């Protein structure tokens, strides 16, 4: 990877009469603590520019480059503020009310974008008491582009009843819990676009790396609400902010990639690896698995969830399961986002900030053992075993060699789950919540839902390229 500034340094240049800054560098911003941050902008070539931060009053100087760009690097202290930043060239810019803390990008499609104004009920309930001077939002305007851009539209605003109304509800609840637990300022960057496909959030060249990602890109259907050109949202909304130091990313997306679910595992790897490359930092990446919704399809949603689960083989990633957080399975946008944000925050608190968290990983299928007509299932991340919310465990299916699945019974035995069905004397495979809109009720003792899974790798009747994602 080239430097984090390579994307916009390679753009066409314009001689500028005054020193200017990108939108994300402004008064009221939050800068990442205890790291090297980049301060950058534009100026006349050879123009002398000095930058002074009030937290150490150290003068840093540079000269405008031939392409009319400039940058300096500053070391930030531990969390605190407010501070100021003074940039001097042919003109002087003073940024005030700067806080130092933790900065996270909140990205994805409509379930990340959903806010109080758009129907997030628990975010709406927060509005009267939303004001928090230690949480600041940067709400990014939607922008698609054919080539990498060097700036975005947006502004920093304190968390209050006005700014929260149109800010990501998931992002807000995530940030609120981080701020309450860590006691530091939190900066949240909302870079979401409803209906967007993962392919558009990648650098365009990456979409052709694998047969399944090429097929995904080629089969994206045009819509009136989001672009479908690979790279379009990376160019317009991600590339311009990659010089800005962040702590990590939370991601909620996938509904729009049901058009070719087998590609999602590769796409997630490309997304995470490429963003980490441009930020030049192994940033943590926590994401949300698709919620149950009656799409009316066959196995597209189940397969996409499966590929989301597989993507946890990436380092410093974690997945939140939402099978229990749906108020209406006929609404693709669950109206309650607080618990989604809290579960994401628990991943960050435990794995990124090394804070004590009681439980944050959902139980995940590990292995099966066939015991006559019954199957014994073992799981990771269920140290105290399981509990069921209801009279009997739901959403298990079992099949014999004929590969025909039938509803199964299940019971908890210690830290394992035993599954069987009348008429299946020799079972060979088990599936759990493996459909569009499951209603599972099996949880860890700590209250986290079991991740949907299947023990087989049988053909699901999807396009033949589905075989390409299997190791």
Automatic annotation (TrEMBL):
Gene3D superfamilies: SGNH hydrolase. Residues 102-347 form the Sialate O-acetylesterase domain. InterPro entries: SASA, SGNH_hydro_sf, SIAE. It comes from the Bacteria. Residues 1-17 form the signal peptide. Pfam families: SASA. Keywords: Hydrolase, Signal. This is Sialate O-acetylesterase. It comes from Larkinella bovis.
